[in-house]
Amino acid sequence: MIFKQKRLIAGVLSALAATLFVASSAVAQAHSEGDTKKDIQRHKAMAAAHEGAAKCLESGKKYDACMKDLQTACKGLGIGKHCGMRHEH
To answer: C-alpha angle with apex 61: 55 to 63, nearest 5 degrees?
Structure first.
């Protein structure tokens, strides 16, 4: 009987700990209004850079030249050399 009670208590404590961990993670990931505004600006800047890359390719410029322009336009915005966006080729 005591073994079952200890096991039940251990299970309840584990569930409580997991709940607190999930809740604290959600709070830590919440963005402030200022963070959200910065994210919006970055997404718009990345979209404009990609639109520029598309127009560059449409103009007939070589792929490598357009990608170099994209990398310059995206400096400091996205992750990696593809401005946070990559597709298959």
So the answer is: 90
